[in-house]
Amino acid sequence: EAGVVQSPRYKIIEKKQPVAFWCNPISGHNTLYWYRQNLGQGPELLIRYENEEAVDDSQLPKDRFSAERLKGVDSTLKIQPAELGDSAVYLCASKRLAGGSYEQYFGPGTRLTVT
Amino acid sequence: SQQGEEDPQALSIQEGENATMNCSYKTSINNLQWYRQNSGRGLVHLILIRSNEREKHSGRLRVTLDTSKKSSSLLITASRAADTASYFCATEVFGGATNKLIFGTGTLLAVQP
Asked: What CATH number is associated with residue A29?
């Protein structure tokens, strides 16, 4: 089966510009996650979706970050405006079911550089 | 915020040797997972151990979990150069809206050929 797809793989923008990341999870996976990974650190959750509902966005900086998952499949994460501190790798992951001990499948990530 | 801390932060061994990485965490968990990350394949799930399990094996991997000490270890036997990567432990806690996977800071493993 195809894995989690993310695009773009790399993005370089100037500060104060907007940027958007796209994720297509594994077919049939109801749960979708966006993580941010800073250099030398583990991923940190930004938002979790169950189908099209954002059930945990407590760590999403809502003043500049937004996300959507229309029709409960693809998802986009947007930053507007970007700041220098937003430089990181943004990872998307999906999981078959919300509950239960199942692994998460990660996409390759989008490496964002804000100059 | 990171829940887990891996130890050591970096580890360098020769091919064929065993590698042991440790993880400590802070709160009660439902399961603990280990992931590997390298530039070629991104973040890949290795093994999951539930809170009521104490040891689990998968190929050359052996994971232990001690919930009383809130710690886990990952043993890679007969290491290969291809095992060179960063290894992360991640704890999962179920709790409705707070169901989340929390990653540690990672161990960077270098296997010298």
From this structure: 2.60.40.10
